[in-house]
Amino acid sequence: MPGELHHIPAKECPLETVQDVCRQCHYSPRQPENWQPVRFHLVLVDEAGQMSYPAQLAFLSKLDATAFPPNTIFIFTCNAMESLEKRFLSRCRTIEFSNYGMASEIVGLLTAIWDKETNSPNERRISSESQKFLATTCAMP
Questions:
Q1: Which residue from 18, 80, 111, 141 lies 20 to 30 Å from 70 (Cα-Cα)?
Q2: Could you report the per-residue pLDDT of 56-114, keeping only the tens digit for each?
Q3: Are 16 and 66 in the same domain?
Q4: What is the Cα gyration radius of the chain?
Q5: In a domain, 56, yes or no
Q6: Same domain, 10 and 74
Q7: Rounded CA gap, 83 and 55, in Å?
Q8: Are residues 67 and 135 in the same domain?
Q9: What does the alpha-carbon distance between residue 35 and residue 12 come to, in Å, rounded to a whole number?
Q10: Does residue 46 sit in the same domain as residue 84?
C-alpha cells in the first residue's frame, strides 16, 4: 500500500499525540524501510472512543478543510460511538461492520486454514469451538 502508516493505539491518544501526528503529516510521506516516497499518510486511530476529549476537539479542526494535513487519510475504529462528539462524527463517514449471517462461511474458512497449515487431530474440536464462538458473537446486537 503506497502510504506511511501512523498507528495510534487504544487509549494513547491525548491532545499532544494528535498535534504530533498532524505535524508529521505535513512532511512528504516515506516508507520506513527504504525511505522511498509514497503517495499519502494513513493515520489509524484504534478505539477512537477512548481518546481524550481535547483530542476529539483537536481532530475537529484537523478534519475541517481549513487545517486538514495534505495527502492524509484518517481512519478511526471503535466498538461504540456513544463517547464520540456528534460534531466529530459529522466529519467522518461511518461504516458499520457486522458478521451477522456469516458464521458458516467463517467456520469453513477457519477449517480450510487449519487444514492447510497443520495436520493436527484437534481441527474438528477447533472448528466446533469456533462455531460456538461465532454463533455467540452473531447473536449479539
A1: 80
A2: 988 988 888 778 899 999 999 988 888 888 988 888 888 887 777 777 787 788 878 87
A3: yes
A4: 20
A5: yes
A6: yes
A7: 12
A8: no
A9: 26
A10: yes
95 within a domain of the structure (yes/no): no
Nearest Cα to 36, choosing from 7, 4, 5? 4
Asked if the structure places residue 71 within a domain, the reply is: yes
Give me the amino acid identity at 85: E
Q: Residue holding cell 512528504? A: 28
Are the beta carbons of 15 and 53 closer than 8 angstroms?
no
pTM higher than 0.90: no
136: number of Cβ within 10 Å: 10
Burial class (CB in 10 A: 0-12, 13-18, 19+), 72: buried
Same domain, 117 and 85: no
Beta-strand relationship, 72-76 and 40-45: parallel
Nearest of 49, 63, 51 to residue 92 by alpha carbon: 63
Euclidean distance between CA atoms 22 and 58, whole angstroms = 10
Q: What is the DSSP string of 37-67?
A: B-SEEEEEETTGGGS-HHHHHHHHHHHSTTT
